[in-house]
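Researcher: I'd like a candidate sequence for this fold, 507 residues long. If you have to choose between options at a position, lean toward the conservative one.
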C-alpha cells in the first residue's frame, strides 16, 4: 500500500477562532474521495505541532499542505514546515495563500517549502499530487498555478489558470471537518449575530489597486458563485446549526449587483444578518432603493476601502478616476440614510517626494476622517499604515524600492516581531515614515476610538461608552492627540476590540 495521506494545516491567526478554515476546506474538497487527508486547525489546537507530529510518526503521511497568510500565521507555518523537513525528510511540503504567492522566492529558497500554489488550488493541488504519485514530474510545467524549483534549482512559475465556474466546484466537506472540530466551535458571537458563519462566495477582484496583495495573484479577475448556490449553503447552516449571521470574506463580495440583490431577496425572511467587503465606487452604483433592500434583507455593515480622501493619492494607489474624496463623503451619507454601517479603512503613510509631504498628507487624512465622522458618526474607521506588497512593475512599487525599502531575504526573518507587525499594517518599516509620524497616527487612532467606540465591540456600551466619549472629547475637538494615556488605560482595561480585518487587507 502506498502511504500517501495528506495533512492540511490552517496556522493560528489572531482572534479568528470563529472562522471556518475555508482555505483548507477548499483544498480538501478538491481531493475528497481520491486521497485520504486530515485537517489540523491551529486556531483550535492547544498544541498543533503535537497533533501534526503524531500524524507524521505513523509513517502514513507523505504530504503537508499549509495555507499561509501574512501576519500571525507565519509564526506556526514557518517553524512547523522547517521541523518537518528536518525530521521527516520524505514529506513533501506545499504552501498556498497570499503570503506564499507573493513571497514565493523567499519561500522556495528556504529549502523547506517544496511547492507553492499560486492562487486557487482546486485543480492545481490534486494534479500536483497525481503527478508526484505517478512519478511523472516532467508534467509539472503543465500544471497551472504552480511555482516550484526544477532539478537545476531554477524557480519555475507556470501559467495562471482562468478562474473556474464557482458553482461547478465540489462543495466544501463541512461534515468531514466536523469529525475533527465540531462546527459549532466556529459559529461564535459577533457584532453580526450570536452564531456567525464565515463564508467565501467568490474568488479574486476585478480591480488592480497598487497596494493590494490580491492583484499579483488574480490579475484583476473575479468570479463568484450564483446567489442560489450561496443560499443553499447558508440554508444548510441555518437549518443544521441555527446560524443568524454570515460574514462574507470575499475580496470583493459586492462586485455583481445582480448577484447581491438576488441573494438579498432569497435571504429576506430568514432573519440572518450579513456583512461583506466591497468598493465604494462599485456600491455607489447601487440605487438608494437597492441599498435599502439589502438592509431589509440583513446587510448591517460593509467593509470598504476608502484609503484616503486625497484624489492625487488615490491615483497613486491606482484607485483614482473611479473613486474620489467627494464620492466617499457622498457615499457615507447614502449609507447613513440606508441604515448600513460603512466600515471604512484608511491607508496612511504613502511615500512622497519629501518628508514634509508625507506628514502633510497624514494630517490631511486625519482631518478628512473627522469630516467623515461629522457626516456619518456611525461610520467605522480602520487605520492602517501603508505596507508595500510586491506588485513588481507598478509605479508605486518602483517608488518604494527607490526609497530604500526591501523585503526580508530569509524566510525566518518574517517571524521577527517587526515583520509580523508589518504584515498587520501596524509597523511598516518604510524609510519615509518617521517615528513621530507613526506616533501621530496611533495617538489620533486612540483618541478616535475613545470618542467614537466601535459599534462592532458589543462589550463597550452604556456608561463605558459615555465615559470614553467624555474623557476623549476635548482632545478630539482641539486636535491635541499626544500622550492619550488615560484613554489607552480604559481601552486596555475594558479589552476594547478595535475594528479591523486581521492580517490581510484587501479592497
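Model: Candidate sequence:
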Amino acid at each position: 500500500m502506498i502511504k500517501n495521506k495528506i495533512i492540511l494545516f490552517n496556522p493560528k491567526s489572531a482572534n479568528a477562532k470563529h472562522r471556518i478554515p475555508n482555505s483548507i476546506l477548499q483544498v480538501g474538497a478538491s481531493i475528497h474521495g481520491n486521497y485520504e487527508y486530515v485537517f489540523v486547525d491551529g486556531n483550535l489546537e492547544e498544541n498543533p505541532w503535537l497533533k501534526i507530529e503524531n500524524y507524521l510518526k505513523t509513517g502514513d503521511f507523505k504530504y503537508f499542505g499549509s495555507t499561509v497568510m501574512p501576519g500571525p500565521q507565519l509564526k506556526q507555518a514557518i517553524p512547523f514546515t522547517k521541523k518537518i523537513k528536518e525530521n521527516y525528510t520524505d514529506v513533501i511540503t506545499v504552501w498556498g495563500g497570499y503570503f506564499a504567492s507573493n513571497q514565493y522566492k523567499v519561500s522556495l529558497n528556504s529549502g523547506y517549502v517544496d511547492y507553492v500554489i499560486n492562487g486557487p488550488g482546486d485543480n492545481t493541488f490534486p494534479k500536483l499530487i497525481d503527478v508526484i504519485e505517478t512519478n511523472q514530474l516532467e508534467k509539472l510545467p503543465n500544471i497551472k498555478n504552480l511555482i516550484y524549483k526544477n532539478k537545476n534549482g531554477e524557480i519555475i512559475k507556470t501559467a495562471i489558470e482562468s478562474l473556474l465556474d464557482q458553482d461547478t466546484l465540489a462543495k466544501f466537506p463541512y461534515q468531514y471537518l466536523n469529525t475533527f472540530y465540531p462546527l459549532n466551535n466556529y459559529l461564535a458571537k459577533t457584532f453580526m449575530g450570536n452564531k456567525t458563519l464565515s463564508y467565501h462566495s467568490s474568488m479574486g477582484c476585478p480591480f488592480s489597486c497598487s497596494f493590494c496583495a490580491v492583484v499579483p495573484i488574480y490579475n484583476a479577475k473575479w468570479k463568484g458563485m450564483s446567489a442560489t448556490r450561496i443560499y443553499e449553503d447558508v440554508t444548510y447552516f441555518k437549518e443544521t446549526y441555527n446560524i443568524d449571521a454570515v460574514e462574507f470574506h470575499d475580496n470583493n463580495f459586492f462586485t455583481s449587483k445582480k448577484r447581491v440583490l438576488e441573494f438579498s431577496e432569497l435571504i429576506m425572511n430568514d432573519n440572518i444578518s450579513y456583512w461583506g467587503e466591497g468598493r465604494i465606487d462599485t456600491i455607489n452604483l447601487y440605487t438608494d432603493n437597492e441599498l435599502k433592500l439589502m438592509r431589509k434583507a440583513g446587510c448591517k455593515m460593509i467593509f470598504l476601502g476608502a484609503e484616503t480622501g486625497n484624489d492625487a493619492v488615490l491615483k497613486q494607489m491606482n484607485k483614482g478616476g473611479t473613486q474620489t474624496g467627494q464620492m466617499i463623503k457622498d457615499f457615507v451619507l447614502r449609507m447613513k440614510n440606508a441604515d448600513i454601517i460603512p466600515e471604512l479603512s484608511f491607508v496612511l503613510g504613502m511615500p512622497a517626494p519629501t518628508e514634509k509631504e508625507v506628514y502633510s498628507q497624514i494630517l490631511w487624512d486625519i482631518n478628512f476622517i473627522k469630516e467623515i465622522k461629522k457626516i456619518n458618526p456611525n461610520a467605522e474607521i480602520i487605520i492602517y499604515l501603508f505596507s508595500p506588497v510586491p506588485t513588481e512593475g507598478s509605479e508605486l512599487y518602483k517608488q518604494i524600492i527607490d526609497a530604500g525599502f526591501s523585503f526580508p531575504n530569509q524566510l525566518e526573518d518574517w517571524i521577527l516581531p517587526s515583520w509580523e507587525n508589518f504584515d498587520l499594517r501596524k509597523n511598516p518599516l518604510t524609510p519615509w515614515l518617521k517615528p513621530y509620524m507613526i506616533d501621530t497616527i496611533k495617538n489620533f487612532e486612540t483618541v478616535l476610538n475613545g470618542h467614537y467606540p466601535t459599534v462592532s465591540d458589543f462589550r463597550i456600551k452604556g456608561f463605558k461608552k459615555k465615559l470614553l466619549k467624555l474623557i476623549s472629547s476635548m482632545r478630539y475637538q482641539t486636535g491635541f492627540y499626544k500622550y492619550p494615556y488615560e484613554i489607552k488605560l480604559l481601552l486596555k482595561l475594558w479589552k476594547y476590540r478595535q475594528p479591523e480585518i486581521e492580517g490581510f487587507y484587501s479592497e
